[in-house]
């Protein structure tokens, strides 16, 4: 692992911390173009939980998704819909930079959920921080074929820093773990 990569990422994280990002994670009905959010959490840089909510999807949660995150159709049966939660979600994200572990996935599923409720989608901030990409560079496993750093699972990032938080595939736990990985990358190398 290259210490210059770590120093570069550390400096970037320190600069981003000054903008006080919020951290976000979602759990979903799956990975496809018709899937949607069933669990969302937003946490402030200082660790305050701004939002932690199950979401009632427009379709049933399939068994393969349930096997990953443990969220059942019964659990979301009386939960608010995405449309009902949208004002609270946008309120928590308004004017904030958002840090996620795999920005592309979470924002795609948020957009898909928004479109299912015919709500106009606009990414809710100016700058997104992809902690997965930052950790890939920090970890330093270069892939010659793809000419990029190899992405690592959130669980791998947590173990790397000996963080005693689970990667449970629930939005709040994964948001807290993402936040902690981000903060650890900003420490002295």
Share of helical residues: 40-55%
Order of helices and strands: HEEEHHHEHEHEEHH
CATH class group: Alpha Beta
How large is the count of helical segments?
Answer: 8
Q: What is the CA-based Rg, rounded?
A: 17 Å
Average pLDDT figure: 91
State which percent range the strand residues make up: 15-25%
Structural features, described:
The chain is 44% helix and 16% strand. The chain has 189 residues and is of the alpha/beta class. It has one domain: Nucleotidyltransferase, domain 5. The protein is globular, with a radius of gyration of 17 Å.
Compact summary:
With 189 residues, the chain is α/β, with parallel strands linked by helices. The chain has 8 helices and 7 strands.
Summarize the SSE layout with pairings:
Layout: H1 3-17, E1 22-28, E2 37-44, E3 49-54, H2 63-69, H3 73-76, H4 82-93, E4 98-100, H5 103-116, E5 128-130, H6 131-139, E6 142-143, E7 148-149, H7 154-160, H8 171-185
Helix pairs in contact: 1-6, 6-8
Key terms for this structure?
single chain, 8 helices, 44% helix, 189 residues, two-stranded antiparallel sheet
């Amino acid at each position: 692992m290259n210490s210059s990569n770590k120093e570069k990422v550390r400096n970037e994280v320190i600069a981003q911390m000054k903008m006080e990002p919020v951290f976000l994670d979602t759990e979903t009905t799956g990975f496809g173009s018709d899937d949607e959010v069933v669990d969302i959490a937003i946490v402030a840089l200082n660790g305050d939980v701004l939002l932690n909510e199950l979401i009632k999807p427009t379709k049933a949660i399939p068994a393969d998704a349930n096997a990953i995150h443990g969220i059942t159709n019964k659990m979301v049966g009386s939960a608010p819909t995405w449309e009902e939660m949208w004002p609270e979600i946008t309120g928590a994200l308004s004017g904030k930079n958002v840090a996620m572990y795999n920005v592309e996935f979470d924002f795609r599923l948020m957009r898909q959920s928004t479109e299912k409720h015919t709500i106009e989608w606009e990414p809710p901030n100016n700058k997104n921080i992809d902690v997965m990409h930052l950790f890939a560079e920090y970890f330093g496993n270069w892939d010659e074929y793809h000419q990029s750093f190899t992405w690592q699972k959130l669980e791998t990032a947590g173990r790397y820093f000996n963080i005693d938080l689970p990667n449970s595939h629930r939005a709040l736990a994964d948001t807290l773990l993402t936040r902690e990985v981000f903060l650890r990358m900003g420490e002295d190398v």
